[in-house]
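Quick one:
INPUT:
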């Protein structure tokens, strides 16, 4: 899957940390990775309980109404998964020493993995990365400076445009994205796999029929025409594979209602309707009709601005429910 898919931009970055010691407030010295961990540990997450809601603190990423998820992870070293195994019989015949040391990957410095899933803008040349990063800088510059201060090269970042360019230099391709709003039934743009296979079979049969007609018309004098059959099969197969390869690299189209404001509104409508359905169990038809009309007037399903599920808050009118907002998990060392 590409970085841009289904109307979403799946940003993946690996950002190197500085190695120089950092002096903290009490005069002692610590490492940039420890400074980063302390910053991430104090960064508010989504409001996941009434106490969090009452405190008024929420993830700063929720200020950006294009950001669905954001994750920050400090990576000191790659996880060691054990020896690379093999066939026991073959290794015994080759007298492989199972206690011998194998190469182990090591990083020269800690890295910060920063990933984000945000609403893309396919009409922009870069899919919307530049505008998203600049908008994020406008809404949470102070927090971004605190987070990325221990990172290599961030001291040269002065504004949103420079922040976008700095992120782009640290970006790696997202090869396995997770689209949480995948549109059921979406296949190849304009075609289905079945249509491609049928077209290849029909082309093969048509060319084979032409070869048979040519042989019949010439009384079998040109036997080499039968070579058209395997050639047609090969050409059709290569054309089908090439078509699938080209189209498979195209991102899926944007699913309707998959942007963050629409998702928040959908969650609000869904949760309010669930409460209404529970309240009207056993009601007569006239009551159902009247109350549903009041429900539509109060919820306003077509209004994405208000009322809606607040970003960065996991609740619905006092009912704790899971939603999709920008959440910054606690830092994890791997």
């Amino acid at each position: 899957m590409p970085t841009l898919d289904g109307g979403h931009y799946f940003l993946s970055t690996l950002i190197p940390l500085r190695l120089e010691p950092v002096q903290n407030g009490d005069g002692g010295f610590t490492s940039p990775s420890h400074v980063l961990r302390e910053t991430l540990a104090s960064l508010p997450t989504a409001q996941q309980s009434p106490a969090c809601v009452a405190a008024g603190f929420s993830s700063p990423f929720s200020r950006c109404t294009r950001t669905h998820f954001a994750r920050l992870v400090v990576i000191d070293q790659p996880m060691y998964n054990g020896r690379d195994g093999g066939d026991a019989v073959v290794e015994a015949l080759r007298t492989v020493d199972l206690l011998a040391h194998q190469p182990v990957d090591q990083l020269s410095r800690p890295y910060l993995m920063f990933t984000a899933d945000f609403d893309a803008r396919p009409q922009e040349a870069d899919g919307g990365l530049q505008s998203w990063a600049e908008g994020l800088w406008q809404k949470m510059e102070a927090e971004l400076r605190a987070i990325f201060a221990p990172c290599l090269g961030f001291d040269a970042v002065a504004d949103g445009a420079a922040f976008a360019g700095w992120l782009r230099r640290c970006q790696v391709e997202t090869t396995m994205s997770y689209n949480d709003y995948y549109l059921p039934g979406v296949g190849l743009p304009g075609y289905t796999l079945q249509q491609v296979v049928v077209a290849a079979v029909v082309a093969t049969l048509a060319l084979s029929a032409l070869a048979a007609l040519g042989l019949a018309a010439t009384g079998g004098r040109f036997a080499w025409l039968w070579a058209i059959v395997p050639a047609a099969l090969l050409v059709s197969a290569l054309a089908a594979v090439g078509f699938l390869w080209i189209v498979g690299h195209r991102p899926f189209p944007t699913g309707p209602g998959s942007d963050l404001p629409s998702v928040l509104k959908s969650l609000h409508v869904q949760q309010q309707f669930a409460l209404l359905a529970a309240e009207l169990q056993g009601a007569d038809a006239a009551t159902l009709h009247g109350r549903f009309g009041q429900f539509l007037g109060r919820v306003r399903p077509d209004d994405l601005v208000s009322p809606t599920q607040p970003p960065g808050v996991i609740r619905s009118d006092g009912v704790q429910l899971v939603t999709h907002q920008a959440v910054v998990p606690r830092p994890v060392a791997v």
